[in-house]
Amino acid sequence: MHEGGVRDTAALVSLDDIRLAAGRIRAIVRRTPLLDVEADPPWPEQRQKQIRLSLKCECFQPGGAFKIRGACNMIAQLPPEARAAGVITYSSGNHGQAMALAARTLGAPAVVVMPTTAPKVKVEGARALGAEVIFAGTTSADRRARAETEAASRGLTMVPPFDHEWIIAGQATAGLEIIEQCPNVAAVLVPIGGGGLAAGVAAAVKQTRPEVKVIGVEPAGAAKMKASVDAGHPVTLPKTETIADGLMPVRPGDLTFAHVRHFVDRVITVEDKDIIAAVLWIFRNAHLVAEPSGAATTAALLGGALDAALAVDGPIVAIVSGGNMGIEKLAEWSQAAQ
Questions:
Q1: pTM for this structure?
Q2: Is the domain covering 9-65+164-337 a CATH 3.40.50.1100 domain?
């Protein structure tokens, strides 16, 4: 992909931006481990080889997902008066919880606008962290419109879920950690919702080790980034439908799209059935609870979607972006698979 001229590269986050973010969030954000697991993806016989797979366990973050990185990096840079007035965001769940946690830690009141379809575990998580929760519609556009109205009327600072350079720089710190933890990494698989994590991780990896492949993964029913890359500009899908609720935005951000087009090698899609299989595989083989959004990268590997996209000799890191999943759904899928 790596197309120059898409956006002024001065607008893309730099390694200095990312390193400063890493220092800024260190007291709150965990340096999550890489967990080595054995994997045998269903590739054609002539290409089968020993796969060295490691899971980047962002499910271990405070709040249960990577989102704490960006939220913390942004709120930490707000002036005291803005923090005192409060912050607001629109989120399907994980970003809302992360912002609520970062806000509580940094002394800012928090409001989260969630879809009416938000998983109960994520709603309860945000409220437990002290956030006021407001429900609005089912799409990211619905949530954003309500959040902007609330921000204007109440004097709150918007902490967007993905399309802001401070958010991207915060998420990028996961990429720096991967390079430090696995210096010989050959490929990094990163899930794509609005694109903040993919944008940041790709920026960190490619500006440190340009030879490492970065593959973005999104559900077939919410393939807004692939559609945008194919079109050469951000595309708004008429709707999205997937079990991966954290990957459901109908449009990528302008800034996240610019980063993905500039730094990501390829964007591929996975089916929901493969995501469910990956959730169960991770639970049984790695003893981790990965929500569907967090299992999408492993689904791409185990389901064979990377057959043509990934030809590397060396370790592969799949980011498990979150673990906020109700035990009831895990049990239901496990029983159905038996």
A1: 0.90
A2: yes
